[in-house]
Amino acid sequence: MTWRVFLLIPWLVSALPALAGTEAPQRPPRTGHARALTLDEAIDLAFAQNPDLAAAAARIGQAEAHVLEAEAAFYPKVTARMEYSYSNNPALAFSSIVAQRRFNFGMNINQPGWVSNFRPEVVGAMNLYRGGQDTALKKAAELGVEAAELERSALRNRLAAAVTAAYYAVLSAPKQAEVAHRSVETVAKALEHTRARVAEGMALKADVLSLEVRATEAYESELKAKNAMELSRSALKTLLGAGEIPEFREIDPGLPKPEADFGKLLDEALNQRPEMQAAARQVQMREQELEAAQGAHRPRVDAYASYGQNSRSPGDFSFNNDNGSIGLSAEVDVFSGGAVSARIQAAERRIVEAQAIQERTRLEIEDEVRQAHLTLNETLQRLKVAEAGTDSAEEALRLVHEQYRGGTATVTRYLEAETDHANAALRAILARYETRVAEAQLRKALGHWR
């Protein structure tokens, strides 16, 4: 009876830590009377409330902010500043006197004395050319936004599959508990009948003991089944991000009919899976970062302009003393100690790394599709066998029960038939819901919920 009764529950609990729109999802208003949800409604609820998706939306916002930061390099930079100096250095003092429009030929240029100079100033600068670095960094940032959006799509795909598994675990748990309860009742009736026969001298005390052991096992299985019901609901609550555990109603969509051609499935997965597209974006990002690093070898050209005025004290400001300047500057790094070359080499290695990750992602997707396809076909076959076995086990138990009550079957044979019936019923329940979960896993492998 301890056969894998609760197969769906451990799978679900172990899968929970792996789950983690351009706008943060909004929580729908909650009402006092929750109606029963279908699977599609449960998935939509998870998309609206799961905190991992909210975190993914925040990461998209961060990526968009990086784009704005990269675009800022194409706009002028304007700075306002105030300077004060007090010096008797002939060069500095003389330049301050000239800027303040106070020079006369009677001054001793070599001994100007201490000179105060206040200068409020507005300075503007604009990058005209940086070897393509700014353009490459902007493209890399835009690819980063696309990668973040694809990562959110991948999370949605994984979340929907996990919700599906949890949903069917919640639906199957009460049915497993019902089977366990029926087993308890069946053994209890047999135990009562056997005790009566022992009292009449028609059965052995050992038969009662055997049935008592079986009753204990059946009761233990019922307790586990009831606990599994709570575990499955708690797991689904975590995935939905809900404060309350809603009720669910099952809609039977019929048995799935998987595509027989694995090649078609693989092509569909490679074209649809967001993980594959995100890996491609990562390669493109690294290529743009390499372009930016190589741009450091090229010249840089900047334009600048400034406007301000000089005076001996803040109270002496006058537009008669204003002055300004404009100009261009060009520079190129002749030698930087190998820093630029090192950055280029690092960027090249990051491209190789991204390409390797892209290939690994492709292999993982191929393996996931193959396993999901094989598992679905296996569960469909097991479902047919399990349903046929349930009918046989139920009829066998009925016959053995009549024989046992008539005294023509031993208690050992009765226990075997009852155990076979309980296990067959559980196998049928698990096979049906495992088929649904396997179908969801294949959909996830194909990127159905991206």
TrEMBL record:
Task: Tell me the leader sequence span.
Answer: 1-20
Where is this protein localized, as stated in its record?
Cell outer membrane
Which Pfam family name is an example for this entry?
OEP
- Cellular component terms (Gene Ontology): cell outer membrane; efflux pump complex
**Which InterPro entries does UniProt cross-reference here?**
OMP_efflux, TolC-like
Major site of localization recorded for this protein: membrane
Presence of the UniProt keyword Isomerase in the record: no
Gene Ontology terms, MF aspect: efflux transmembrane transporter activity; porin activity
Q: Does the keyword Transmembrane helix apply?
A: no
Q: Which residues form a coiled coil?
A: 138-165
Q: Which keywords does the record carry?
A: Cell outer membrane, Coiled coil, Membrane, Signal, Transmembrane, Transmembrane beta strand, Transport
Q: Which family does this protein fall into?
A: Belongs to the outer membrane factor (OMF) (TC 1.B.17) family.
The name this protein carries in UniProt is Outer membrane protein TolC
Q: Which organism is it from?
A: Methylomagnum ishizawai
Supply the source organism's classification: Bacteria, Pseudomonadati, Pseudomonadota, Gammaproteobacteria, Methylococcales
